[in-house]
């Protein structure tokens, strides 16, 4: 069983993450919010996997999470980052998932802004505003860069969790973009990687 000290979070934060887990199980039965195969490992596959991003941008104050789904990583970061004043903006086009995000934000009282919209319409609002942009399981890296390049060019850090295809996605994205990428290990999956992208320029 996972404990607050395993995760290095306060008791209060841990209780909010437990609430997220409980409500996700309850909603999943009727709303099918996450892949059913991941339900056995909600902590490992979703909560801890999301939480690890927080330490990769410890100075961030404003965080934009795209395609947040049932709140991974954005809602977990809003819960865990609340004590240090982190403000998280979650963008999700699916109304069922947005209803769940609003429900958890209300129950936990965390500072999360939920935008029910297509990310293409929201990203421009964050030019010069977001310290970090994240997206998990949303699209391949070259597509993520197409969407977020204006932010990354203006100093936002991109944090993109990736599976075992991270290197292939990097190679593909480098055909169009020049950028700096740190390839970081994932704490929850030895084959997964987290890409930390900065300093992007288009070739053309
Ligand atoms: C595979 S899910 C991943 C959800 C979550 N990030 C996770 O890792 O569990 C992708 C999510 O992105 C949302 N999405 C896809 N395209 C989008 C777009 N253009 N704008 C906003 N949300 C989008 C989908 O509705 C879906 O919830």
TrEMBL record:
It comes from the Bacteria. InterPro entries: rRNA_ssu_MeTfrase_G, SAM-dependent_MTases_sf. Its EC number is 2.1.1.170. Gene3D superfamilies: Vaccinia Virus protein VP39 (3.40.50.150). GO terms for molecular function: methyltransferase activity. It is an enzyme of class 2 (transferase). S-adenosyl-L-methionine binds at residues 67, 72, 119-120, 136. One of its GO terms (biological process) is methylation. It catalyses: guanosine(527) in 16S rRNA + S-adenosyl-L-methionine = N(7)-methylguanosine(527) in 16S rRNA + S-adenosyl-L-homocysteine. The keyword S-adenosyl-L-methionine applies. Its main location: cytoplasm. It holds the Pfam family GidB. The keyword Transferase applies. Keywords: Cytoplasm, Methyltransferase, rRNA processing, S-adenosyl-L-methionine, Transferase. It is found in: Cytoplasm. PANTHER family: S-ADENOSYL-L-METHIONINE-DEPENDENT METHYLTRANSFERASES SUPERFAMILY PROTEIN. Belongs to the methyltransferase superfamily. RNA methyltransferase RsmG family. Specifically methylates the N7 position of guanine in position 527 of 16S rRNA. This is Ribosomal RNA small subunit methyltransferase G. It comes from Microvirga terrae. The gene is rsmG.
